[in-house]
Amino acid sequence: MIDITSKLPHVGTTIFTTIGQLAREHNAINLSQGFPNFDPDPELLALVSEAYKKGHNQYAPMQGALSLREAISEKIERLYGRYYHPESEIIVTAGATQAIFTTIAAFVRPKDEVIVIEPAFDCYEPAIALFGGKSVPVSLEGNDFKMNWSTFKSAITPKTKMVIINTPHNPTGTIWSERDMLQLQDILRDTNIILLSDEVYEHIVFDGKPHESAAKYPDLAARSFICASFGKTFHATGWKVGYCVAPKPLMHEFQKVHQFNVFSVHHPLQIALAEYLKDPQHYVNLGGFYQQKRDAFLDAIKESRFKMVPSEGTYFQLLEYSDITDEKDTVFAERLIKEYKLASIPVSVFCKSEYDKKFLRFCFAKTNDVLEKAAEILNSI
């Protein structure tokens, strides 16, 4: 046997794989992993088919198809008022996760510190550890998951290389306000800290509120990698196509890693997405589409024993269960699958620090019949 010393000794199988397998074993309704159970727009699928037939079946340019990078640049400038040059400040990636990983790989060195806002999506910390960095968790406070900016500021040290934020936020469904972004900008000003802004749910924001992209704030934009996902936006998570934007000097370093890690991304999908993005209605109406699902789901469980604050963004809804049981969330989530045939994600798995606020995360990016069946189960508990 080869003697192996693991670079990630404390990392096991992701919670999404574990819960998904358990849901299949018990034939449970799966509201755990964040993917829709319905198809993308037939118009988009037709464009993909057309791209195959037109011969876009060899390597795309390493940075991505120029037509798609131009469409991304136009979209960002239209929405957030900032121009990113298609040839030097935008790269198409194999999903947002690859964009996040590549950013960390390009900049984090051994003993560097990276501030991670918790609860945090599970791909951040393993990537930091892989490159010898140290995650410094800063927890959102209260059951409304707000940032204590004094606590955040005190976490910054001379070793802080990067800060990772996520808005709209997975798993809590909260969004950062203009005030939050201005506070962050003021704190990071005059530092050499890189900001990694995970904005994969940028178009899924509810109740008329805006998405506060880092691109809207000059000092943040100057230090930011902004990561986004076409898979999340267009109901096609299996396509694994996203993008990353950053100022030219930062993107130059990102590209050095990207070209040897992935090189290029699925070419026909890029050609189709470039054409599809020409109509902004394909993404500006997304919030309203998912808000209807959120509202229907919450209305269907309003008589349940769960407590809820409506999600502000993403397609996730947290439900607080302290009136039902004092079990740890991981235990209750497993029991829900085995006894009630309903799968969710316990929020504690998104935290490095000790966490047990009795929250489960449910994905409402599902057809109405599935949400109705899930609501019946929740109401019966």
TrEMBL record:
Which cofactors are named for this entry?
pyridoxal 5'-phosphate
Which classification does the entry list for the species? Answer: Bacteria, Pseudomonadati, Bacteroidota, Flavobacteriia, Flavobacteriales
**In what residue span(s) does the Aminotransferase class I/classII large domain sit?**
28-377
Look up the domain of life of the source.
Bacteria
Source organism per UniProt = Flagellimonas marina
Q: Which GO terms describe its molecular function?
A: transaminase activity
Question: Gene3D superfamilies this protein is in?
Answer: Aspartate Aminotransferase, domain 1, Type I PLP-dependent aspartate aminotransferase-like (Major domain)
Keywords, alphabetical:
Aminotransferase, Pyridoxal phosphate, Transferase
Q: What name does the UniProt record give this protein?
A: Methionine aminotransferase
Signal peptide region: none
